[in-house]
Prior knowledge:
Blueprint: E1 6-10, H1 15-26, E2 30-37, H2 45-52, E3 58-63, H3 86-89, H4 101-116, E4 118-122, H5 138-151, H6 153-157, E5 163-165, H7 173-182, H8 209-221
Parallel strand pairs: 1-2, 1-4, 2-3, 4-5
Amino acid sequence: MKSAANAVVLLSGGLDSATILAIAATEGHRITALSFRYGQRHARELDAAQNLATAAERHVVIDLDLRAYGGSALTDDIDVPKDRTTADMANDIPITYVPARNTIFLSHALALAEVEGAGDIFIGVNALDYSGYPDCRPDYIRAFETMANLATKAGIEGTMPVRLRTPLIDLSKAEIIRRGVELGVDYGATLSCYDPPATEILTHCGGCDACYLRKKGFADASIMDPTVYAP
């Protein structure tokens, strides 16, 4: 039986978040999508998020400025690494990691969820085909969920315990894509790229880690890649 409960879905506009949005919709949730304009160099993903958010009842966009801290190729004057292999990505935490980003985003999602009476927060983290980010690991998700239920009125009173929903966490990128295709996700309307060129249509650079994992996912899934890549 489908749920009619409220849910908050973190929606970046990328492939993974589009998939979790579709999963939440399939479960019958009343969805509030939550996106962030955080000073990222690839803010064009918000265009994709706006288009995808038609599946939600409400779309909230929060303005933050993580450029005040810097320390990432996505929020600072640092080159985005290009043409790396899977082995390269496994060696260290890449410079595209934004310090504490998921903690900041989930804290906002937690506040929104409590106000809206949402017991489920969906986030598209993945522990298999990912770029080595520490805040995508299952241990982190479990710890945040524990904290969330100690930090809110609803959690302490037991009226609305918080669940962090991570339906993609154990899936490969190919498995995520297959699942999304089954649910009718239009991946051509998503943007995963860390360094997208300034074009009229959504275009990926084709060389950053996110583009590499995206290309590999479609190839491994034996599904046609609808992505537009720069020459």
